[in-house]
DNA sequence: GTCTATAATCAGATAGAC
DNA sequence: GTCTATCTGATTATAGAC
């Protein structure tokens, strides 16, 4: 994406970026653990190991803190999509992205935002980095969805937008945490299970798939 | 459940119950709209039309307000389950409960709780009415799930607990609100769509089902 | 830029009269 | 039980020295 020629950045600027990356990492973890409303700026400052006032030199508000974390995750999603071979079967790419999303959540690296919070929504929708990323990812997934439907690997009865939302919703699926809390299944097994319910549904399959879930 | 003999309740007690029902209704609506954290006790008081201090004569804390709303919904769920014929195909009963849950959410009557909030969780888990209801509903659904798996209408590859969680998760599925926000589909169409993704999955079906989703 | 100290505000909960 | 008025604590954000 970015040119690798002449990274003319001062030492100070580099230090600043490192510091901000550390902040974002803490924010990301706290957002995943407790969500936006329960996360306090004091906790973030304590987690980074700097004073709260210093935080506000980097980010003008709590909302912007969360937005920065979301932008980082969105960038990762863009990179993930870009890394997939465009000549692969579209269904396989969709499955790979869905797996990646759920693995991120199970690892505690998926920030969870309340969809109702209006001030946060406003900040996020005003953030071009975030919105551009969201649109790019949606376009790419949308193209794969339509291609998969055209070749008959995703149901043609479903509007593409419903398929897209269903995949996005895996990023905040409570089934993942419920199964993890039970402690009965490994992260890999949980992902396999939810992949199965997502793509194959709960109904019995007439022909047993080779991607069958663990039976324990 | 309760005996209908000699409802010996004073007029005052009746008035109190009416008032508390009104409170719970407001709480329910606000929980569905904004969630627990964003809901303020002042809003509840304003919605009911009484002073905040009066609220605290009825419920000792904000958490108990939310718990009361949850108990009410849980009771409704118990009644819904009890109303289903026990000799019907178990899959049909499961589908009926899932439909009912999503209709409740689309109507704005499904309180949304942050699964991370610890004080709320504690209050809820200490509430016997709620926990008893949850256990009864889970037992009933669990029995239907196992029966459906035994007769081959729900996949035997999935642990029953995973199926149960997947059904519960429909109560807070963001796909419902996303599709509703789009304004392109009616509530009925949305429910049909999500029912399809839930039970049939995203994959193409070899044999087209008669419960196919709208194609627009 | 980082800090300590402090504003400013908001929300949950309570006191006390009636 | 309901009210007005208030307390208390937590939290976002800022002032101002260094």
Largest sheet of chain A: none
Total beta-strand segments of chain A: 0
Q: How would the global form of chain A be characterised?
A: globular
Q: What is the SS-derived class of chain A?
A: mainly alpha
- Report Rg of chain A: 20 Å
Order of helices and strands of chain A: HHHHHHHHHH
Oligomer: homodimer
Largest interface: A-B, 55 and 56 residues
Unreliable stretches covering 5 or more consecutive residues of chain A: 208-213
Mean pLDDT of chain A: 93
Provide the helix percentage of chain A.
Answer: 55-70%
Strand content of chain A: under 5%
Number of helices of chain A: 10
Distance between the termini of chain A: 45 Å
Task: Map the helices and strands.
The structure is a homodimer of 216-residue chains.
Chain A: H1 11-38, H2 41-48, H3 52-58, H4 62-82, H5 90-106, H6 118-125, H7 128-150, H8 160-168, H9 174-182, H10 187-199
Helix pairs in contact in A: 1-2, 1-4, 4-6, 4-7, 5-7, 5-10, 7-8, 9-10
Chain A binds a DNA duplex (18 and 18 nucleotides) through residues 16, 19, 40-42, 50-54, 56-58, 60-62.
